[in-house]
Amino acid sequence: MDKATAVELKKCLGIILSLSTNVLYYYPPSKRTQYFMNQASNRHSVNVSGVIIGGNAPIVVQSMTNTDTADIAATVAQVQLLYESGSELVRLTVNNDAAASAIPHIVEQLDARNCQVPLIGDFHFNGHKLLSQHPACAGALAKYRINPGNVGRGKKRDQQFSEMIEIACRHDKPVRIGVNWGSLDQQLLANLLTRNANLADPLSLAAINRQAVIESALDSAAFAEEIGLPADHIVISCKMSRVPDLVEVYQTLAQKCRYALHLGLTEAGMGDPGIIASSAALAILLNQGIGDTIRVSLTPEPGATREREVKVAQQVLQSLEIRSFSPSVTACPGCGRTTSEYFQVLAQQIQQELDASMPTWKHDYPGVEAMKVAVMGCVVNGPGESKHANIGISLPGTGEQPVAPVYEDGLKTVTLKGDDIAREFIGLVKNYVKTHYASS
Ligand code: SF4
């Protein structure tokens, strides 16, 4: 086949793939869709001490500690909290000798607590020194994160980057080449800006920034492969802080390479704005089959514990029906037809009961994490929504008869009345779990 024909064929395949991807948007997102899309994306599969990123593996939730890594007790406690909240990988900063020395002890103490979560070391500036001077740290970590914008300048950059990749090869560790637009390789950016300035129709600075993060990641990954790190030991990320930039960058990355992709909005911020921005960015990309592991970078409220970012990441995956982590409660928003807070309180109680039960239920009742419970405020949507759930209750709205029909698998099973509806319904939910999810 001549080159021109090959180029045309590639274009046609691209159009077919793009059309088929667009057609999929009209179906509800589901594991089936995700599976198909992952097949289409055909990412390399990276084994991080038993947790698989990429290929057709489920999308992995990860998080990062904010303790001083040298404080072994505090770091172990926080890693355990993140792990128990559902984080499947945990990243720690390794920024100095004390942190590097602490890593093997942290791993040892986590093992003693049966907390088998792979740890990722986050290296900047001095990573080459720390990894070479602390072989026990290099061996204890499951994966290294290297930021190509922070590994040195000029000739030192390639040399220091090579040192880290060679250590990864010797220890058979995967590496994330994690570009962040806030710490972009300045030389690369300067070269692109100079080239752009000479164009008849120069691109915007934002477009050059996007181009620079992509080039930085892909050039560094290609260099790592040249040094000897296999493609299935490489994860890449290009974190941006604006949602449209992130979406555009990852759509381009997904087309340009087969490396496993770590997805996340950087510096998402605090509270609702951070959660909403992260969810918006991740949802667009995940629904297109882009992303093999995710982290939600939330700034915790002062004094707050760290696991919120894990819960948000899980909720994003669960709401897209890509993975299930915990039974969900569908509750209506309430309106003028419900003048009391009764159904809101009940919905909250049910969610708390479900969350509290999950640590044991996930072992005793496999599949329970996909269960749906409906708590509805009145007869308008109550029966319909309850029938769609595994188990649901339609509470009486203002002026309605004070009875609450309960539905299981679409059929009305009982009608509750009186002052004890909440406790009785919680009992019915627990009984549903026991009778429908008990392993044989
Ligand atoms: S189900 Fe009833 S109470 Fe709930 S929002 Fe709809 S109309 Fe209002």
How would you describe this protein?
The chain has an eight-stranded parallel barrel with strand order 3-4-5-6-7-8-9-11, surrounded by five helices. A five-stranded mixed sheet has the order 13-14-15-16-17, with helices on both faces. A two-stranded antiparallel sheet has the order 1-2. The longest helix has 23 residues, at 205-227. Helix 3 (72-85) crosses helix 4 (97-112) and helix 9 (205-227) packs parallel to helix 10. It starts with a helix and ends with a helix. It has 15 helices and 17 strands. With 440 residues, the protein is α/β, with parallel strands linked by helices. Helix 14 links the parallel strand 14 (372-376) and strand 15 (391-394). 50% of the residues lie in helices and 17% in strands. The radius of gyration is 25 Å and the shape is elongated. Mean pLDDT is 89; it is low at 1-33. Iron/sulfur cluster (SF4) binds at residues 332-335, 337-338, 376-378, 380-382, 397.
